[in-house]
Amino acid sequence: KFDLSSPLPAMAEVTKERIALVLCDMQPDLLGSLTNRKALVSAQKIILEAARKNNWLVVYSGLQFKPSYQGVSPKHKIYGALSKLNSKLGDNAVHWFMEGYAGSTISSELAPRKDERLIWRCQHIPQELSTYFGDEEVTKVYVTGGKASGAVQITCQVLMDQGMEIVVVKECVQDDDPDRLNAVLQHVLPIYGSVTTLAQVIDDVGGLDTFTVDSRDSFIDLMSGGNGLSGKTKKSFLYASDCGRRGHGTRYIELLLERGGAPWKMHPTQTWYEDFINGEFKCPLGKKVVDFCDEPDFSKVSMYLSGREFLDEKDKVLEFAGRFMPKTYCLENGKWIGEEGGPPGDDEEGAMIAPWFIKETDKNLGGAAIIIVSKPSEILKSVLKPQQRYVVQQHIRNPLLTDDGRKTHLKFYVLLICQEDGISWTLYTYKGALLSISPEPWSPMDLSHDTQITIHRHPVPPGETEGWKQHWEATYEKCKLGTTEVIEKAIRTGKLKGRPKKQFEVFSVDWMPDEHGNIWMFEFNMSPAVCQKEFDNPSNRDKRRDALMQHDKAMLQEALDIVMPWEGGGTNGKSTEGLWDLAGEFKTQK
Prior knowledge:
Blueprint: E1 19-24, H1 28-31, H2 37-53, E2 57-63, H3 80-89, E3 117-121, H4 127-135, E4 140-145, H5 148-160, E5 165-173, H6 178-188, E6 194-196, H7 198-204, H8 213-223, E7 238-241, H9 249-257, E8 264-266, E9 269-275, E10 279-284, E11 292-293, E12 301-302, H10 309-312, H11 318-321, E13 328-332, E14 335-337, E15 356-360, E16 371-373, H12 379-382, E17 389-394, E18 406-418, E19 424-430, E20 434-441, H13 449-452, H14 472-492, E21 502-513, E22 519-525, H15 543-563, E23 580-587
Parallel strand pairs: 1-2, 1-4, 2-3, 4-5, 5-6, 7-8, 7-11, 12-21
Antiparallel strand pairs: 9-10, 13-14, 13-17, 15-16, 15-17, 18-19, 18-20, 18-21, 19-23, 21-22
């Protein structure tokens, strides 16, 4: 039973959080001994802005001795040597951290404001700091400073004994020995409190957008490996961000960083937004537009074409590539759509002379995603996702085979560029196209993937491949002209559109010649499998993969040299274009 007449128990008093920032020994006499003084000062300026705009208590703690090191024992383990040397040479010669000399004052770049406290000490342990924070009822302290193994460490120890929450900000701490700095940050300071990043502090106080432009630029430069200098004092760099989108962005960035002429640097990323289905999307830190990025909205040069889906999706490309493609039927929600209607019946002439291929319109998942049947009546029964949209094609008659009877197609690479004006287009085709050859001799009756699907690229150039090289020159020219016609039509009809920035894309077209000299196009692949990351490790590569990696890297490098030219452009002493062959130039109306 409850006695409602009894008074309720008193609620525990909630302690109001009082946050302080302490900057230890930010004096020229100490800063001068640090290997990365500029980065430390830049980081301190940023955290000072965070503290000031959030009304934290800001305190400077510094080491400062009386003239002639009065009161310092010559036997002092740390400071005794200064006292001894001073007794021999005097104040004019030996005055490190001595009052009255400029080196002992707080650096002018970090000068305290009138309402900020400056607490000097003339001993190793900052007892005065501990007393002051106790009087101010401080509950949480961000500790920063010039020497992790000295004042920073002892400050954490002293304040921890007062029951305060200690947070050390990694970028805001330095030491005169980099190895010692890492050791203290990783193994010593976590004993007394937590070690966090400047990025986390910025997030905690509202995000980078709430800071001044100078602080934002400075932080971005720090995170890119620079000294945090902004404006006229910052060295001119070109910045690239890898936001983790599918495609060739990661590889392009690696190739840009390898350039010896222009100084490229990585620009860090942040979460842009989160999608329930697709997960997290990233953008450059500060949502800054960088020189190159795999997210078009944040890149000065876009690596994706606007309207690319009209090439990539197998039903949409029919509008301007239909004359080069086998007769194509479209299936949606289990019903045949479009002018062609459905395929012929099994008993109609030619219906069963060659196999039928069923492909999802918006997928390029390799041979495993292709369904093969022997006759039209099997098509609807074989569709696994009735609600999906499919294209259906019968195999071409009399494909051009290798001398030993195997089926091939050309993986024909394309570079398309649109300039900043949005109307000037340039098309290149790659003379280093590759054959894909099936592992088994071809037969129209054999429905196995090893016979019908040609997805594995042959590392030997087509013009050097025994049993097929005699067809190369004529086939290349036909594929070049056919590709140009299709791309130009996609541009003229407005399916491919310009942007208010340069855009480009490297993609591929699958062409198959027949015995009569015709060429047949099956699809575009806007993200062809080249330079796959899984094969970066040499132990994952065989001789074939080694050759393909060299081919792909040279192809992408030569494409970048055209799109983003530089003084060192061109590979292996070749011209900037390398094996890229100018195929067409077009202009459209805005």
